[in-house]
Every structure is written in C-alpha cells, then in structure tokens.
Amino acid sequence: MTTGPLSGVKVLEFSQVIAAPFGGMHLADMGADVTKFEPIEGESWRVFVELVPKESRTYVSLNRGKKCIALDLKRPEAQEIVHRLVKDADVVLTNYRPGVPEAMGIDYETLSAINPRLIYCENTAFGKKGPLAARPGYDIVVQSLTGLVAGEAKVTDGIPSYIYPAIGDYATGIQISNSICAALYYREKTGKGQRIDITLMGTCLAIQTSQFTFIDAFDSETIPAMLEKLHQAQAEMKSFEEQVAVHAGARPVSAGNIYYRIYQTKDGFFAAGALSHPLRIKFLSATGLTDPRIKPDGSFEMFPEGWEEAGPRMVKEAEALFKTKTSGEWGQRFEAAGVPGGPLYFVEELFENEQILANNLVAELEHPLLGRLRMVAPPFQMTESPLAPQGPSPMLGEHTDAILTENGYSEEEIAALRESGAIR
Description:
By secondary structure, this protein is of the alpha/beta class. It folds into three domains: 258 residues, Crotonobetainyl-coa:carnitine coa-transferase, domain 1 (Rossmann fold); 33 residues, no CATH class; 88 residues, formyl-coa transferase, domain 3. Helix content is 40%, strand content 15%. The chain has 18 helices and 15 strands. Helix 1 packs across helix 8, helix 11 packs antiparallel against helix 12 and helix 13 crosses helix 15.
C-alpha cells in the first residue's frame, strides 16, 4: 500500500528517453500508479547499451516503480486497449512529436472525449506551433537553440560541447511532475481536466532567467550592437572562442574572480562559493589573501583601473595557495569562517558518502534480472505522506497480462491479441 501524496492517482505514460520518463518516475515515487506503454521491441532507452537483453542502466535509472505494458499502437486493437484503460485514468503523459499521438489514437482530443476529467501532459521539443514544431529534438539540439551551449559549454578544438548530463531533459522532467500536481489540485477544486503543454525549449529558456532578461533602459543599445558584431563574426566563420569574446563585450565578467571558482588542492579540488560582499570578507579571513578592490571604508570596487592585468595575478596567487592544503583542511577553514565551500567528488564516490547517506538519498532495490542495485532516492520528503521508490523498473511487457485482465480481457482475448502482434 503506497503512502505517497499521489496514492490512488492512475497515470498512463507514453514515453521514451529522459524527460517524460523522469517526470513519470517522480510521480511514481509520490505514490502514483504509473503504467508505462512501450512498443513491442521496447523503448529506445531500454535497448541503449544493454547490460542484459532489454535492460540498460539508462532505462533502469529513469523508470523505477512503474508497470509496463508492451503493445503496437499502430494497430487499432492496441489503441482500443488504451481507450479502455483511459476511462479510469487520472493522467496521461506523452513525449512524441506533434502529430504522432494523433496517428496512434492517444491524442488529447480523443482521450479527453472518453474521460473529460483527464489531465493530459504533452511534452515536445519545440511546442505544437511555429516553424520547428514538427521537428524531432533531443536535449543537445534544444541546448544549442536556446543559448545554453553558447553560455556554458566547454570548448574543444574550437567547437562547443553540450552540457552533460542532459540538463534540459532532466529539468523538463521536474516541470512535468510539477505541472501535473498543479493540474490535479485544480481538478480537485473545479472537477475539470485539462491539457498541459511542456517543451524542452521552454524549460531551457526558463533556467536562464538572468540571461534571458532584456531591460530596455540598459540593453537597447549594447545588445543590438553586440548581435551585429556577433553575426559578422559568424559570417566570417570566426572560432567559437572569438564569438564568445564578442558576446562578452555586452556582458563583461570581472577578471580576478577568486571568490566563486574551483581550486586544485593538495589532494583533489575544492569549490569556493562566496557570492556576497560579507562572504568575500570571510573568504579573505579564511585564506589570508588580500584584495585591493576592498577599500578602507569596506566598499568594493568591481572594475578598478588596471584590473584586467592585476586580477589574473591575484587568481594565480589564490590557486597557488589552495594547493598547499588538502580539501579537508580547506573545508574546516571555510566552515569555521562561515564561507560556503566543499570538495569535488565524482558521482560514483557518493554511494558511501556520509552526508548523502545521512539524508537518505541512496535507494536500494532488487531487480529481477539485474539483481541488487542502488540509485538516487526521491530528492525530497514529506512528513505526512512520505515518498518511496515503488519498486525497480519493469521488464518489457512484465505487466501486460495482469493489466489487461484487470480491465476485463479474457485469457482468450489476450492470447488473440498476442497472436496478432498487438501486444508482446
């Protein structure tokens, strides 16, 4: 018996890869009964670098706590299965290109006509309107289109790389579960279902709030002038670094940033995060460094004359200093001074990390084919309706017969559906 806040909520999930499966997994962690519909051969992430046939690390990590039914939605008899199940469903979640749900009979108009109280969440790459609506789009494509790559990516041989992990996909998954919870609340108040439209494009813009804000009084001259130079650099096939330099002219970054960066230490790396002026003072106290930009009256001058040369020299001094102590020693100093900071870990180191374990962020599950596995637990908790993994990811078609039987199909009908190729 699930105890999460969404216990009793029935979700039908038509998804693949990351964003929608991640959103559906959050709903399952919150206690929802999530049934994932997959093609006969399995969704693409299930067969991506398989550990054993039809099971991959990527699939396992994104689909725990769900049931699975495998069917061929190009067949009318398979579509009829969905139409029967949707009568009692609360939520449908899809992430196909516009037009694909209509072709498979699982679009909002069709399903809401069967169940008007249905909440239908449709995730697409670029939205249902506009010149790119029909295009397929993965995270790397949307990262590039929305400026994420231009603002944050590493550069190798003059070419920018995408941000890993797939930040647009994962953030969209969180948006999916967030919006569905809001729609469920609205339905409780009004009795009305509705459609939710979510896009990777919208999410990637939403997480760039300060960058994607145009203030007329400050940007009307500088931004258009920068864009003109940028477009000229692009036309001349300038390197990405050169284009970034043009972009930085409109939004310069202060040289000599010693306060918010990652330093190499005697035994690893250490991240310092002093983002306010009081924290700068504490940072200097913890390190013994001095900053000539801090005046006798305590004020701070961001761009003093000559700082383009003096700033990098101060960074080199700080970098040399941090190499004289271990990450643990710097952690103790920063904690004593009240400065945010901490060591750098590779994610695989965290399964036994004391802080991670103390906050119950490692879930242990038993998979019928892969055995014992550990993965991230639900990232938040609630006192009255606690979240918990509802089991491992399902095997392909594991629950097909049980789900069909629960919905009135006889053994003979199930056998006929399997014989026809409509189900696995």
